[in-house]
Amino acid sequence: MPANPFSQAPMTAEGRAAWDAILADPRRTLVCSDFDGVLSPIVPDPDSAWASGPAVDALTRLGERIGKVAVVTGRVARRAVTLGGFGGRAGLGTMSVLGVYGLERWDADTGEFAEPEAPPGVDGARAELPGLLARLDLAHARVEDKRLSIGIHTRELDDPAAALARLQGPLTDLAARHGLRVEPGRNVIELRGPGHDKGDAVRALVAEYDPAVVVFAGDDLGDVAAFAAVRDLRASGRIKGLLICSGSDEQDALVALADVVVDGPDGVAALFGRLADDLGSVA
Ligand SMILES: [Mg+2]
């Protein structure tokens, strides 16, 4: 079995054990990845966050060699499938895209989308949002309507961090009045329904596919719940787990929880590619 020394990206002992377990039994491996900041670069307009070619190529090579690939994202599933170019791609035939933190789903093998009704509070919050932003003198903040959730982005404003701080209280109040919760991220605050996060999404995938090893690659606060779920499952002895932080200057919440930190989508591509290399030719 090939060794896995990662000279440029040191890996924890738990991460190395997971890497070896993947090589030993690739078909019982579940590889999960966030989309933005992991498979695609962060750009000012989230609607233009096309996937990185090398990252998707590497994920595809992995997909040919392991049991199951899933993208677990806060995005609408339909948009992630489009921006990723995942539809009909040979090598990603096992892929599922869990959108809006697992509330939506697309499966590559059927090509079908499952898209539930939006929680009622989203309509109420959406209606109040323009007035709230105008009162805060933040009418130019980009509002990303994801149907089941709404993201308010500050990246394009003069002082994104100050704008985010100014939004926090009023958006928390707005969310509470409409039975929603706030989800902070990299220069974004999202309003969405209660009771579902990426940790729930990962646990559901584990229950469905019974993997021996779970990989999760993330970059942002929304991925903390997924990392915690993998760490809990790993601590219970249920699985081995490899947690990959796609590092950035904007967010370091995952660094302490990760087994390996790589440099953004290019680093993710290199790590996935290395794993595919170690797995060798497709059987
Ligand atoms: Mg992300």
Description of the molecule:
By secondary structure, the chain is α/β, with parallel strands linked by helices. The protein folds into two domains: 28-86 and 93-116 and 197-278, 3-Layer(aba) Sandwich (Rossmann fold), CATH 3.40.50.1000; 120-192, Alpha-Beta Plaits (2-Layer Sandwich), CATH 3.30.70. The chain has eight helices and twelve strands. It has helices at residues 13-24, 53-63, 77-84, 120-135, 160-177, 198-209, 224-235, 264-279; strands at 29-33, 68-72, 96-99, 104-107, 112-114, 142-145, 149-153, 181-185, 188-192, 213-218, 240-247, 260-263. The longest helix is centred in the middle third of the chain and has 18 residues, at 160-177. It is globular and about 60 Å long. The two termini are 16 Å apart. Mean pLDDT is 93; it is low at 1-5. Residues 34, 36-38, 219-220 line the site of magnesium ion. The site of magnesium ion (MG) has 6 residues, from loops.
List its salient traits.
283 residues, alpha/beta, Rossmann fold, Alpha-Beta Plaits, 2 domains, four-stranded antiparallel sheet, 37% helix, binds magnesium ion
Write the layout of secondary structure elements.
Elements: H1 13-24, E1 29-33, H2 53-63, E2 68-72, H3 77-84, E3 96-99, E4 104-107, E5 112-114, H4 120-135, E6 142-145, E7 149-153, H5 160-177, E8 181-185, E9 188-192, H6 198-209, E10 213-218, H7 224-235, E11 240-247, E12 260-263, H8 264-279
Parallel strand pairs: 1-2, 1-10, 2-3, 10-11, 11-12
Antiparallel strand pairs: 3-4, 4-5, 6-7, 7-9, 8-9
